[in-house]
Amino acid sequence: xxxxxxxxxxxxxxxxxxxxxxxxxxxxxxxxxxxxxxxxxxxxxxxxxxxxxxxxxxxxxxxxxxxxxxxxxxxxxxxxxxxxxxxxxxxxxxxxxxxxxxxxxxxxxxxxxxxxxxxxxxxxxxxxxxxxxxxxxxxxxxxxxxxxxxx
Length: 151
What we know:
Blueprint: H1 16-25, H2 30-44, H3 49-60, H4 67-78, H5 95-115, H6 118-128
Helix pairs in contact: 3-6, 4-5
């Protein structure tokens, strides 16, 4: 006798916020469409507990090795006239505007590295897998699930 097949995971429909943002991003550029489609695939695919842990860490919980870090680096590159030919040369930015755009793009990378709330992603991971190592010192813990504040 064989064991019964596991019940299929039922994923609830997208909420209005995700659906609205996804709709707003449609058709801007094929690359943006791929990013949007990938993120929608994640939220609609019925991830296992283990997959959820990995995806959360990969999206925004591993400084320098997550999607948020990659996004910041891409923004910096696109804002840099030396790396983005569309901003240089005839019809491009003036030297001053190019320098400012480059500087601001670089600041985004630094800002994300120091201000993205990876500890909150870590909190979510810790609630999903209480045996996962805490990604933050105990004295700076945010216990959002219990309505706590930063200590």
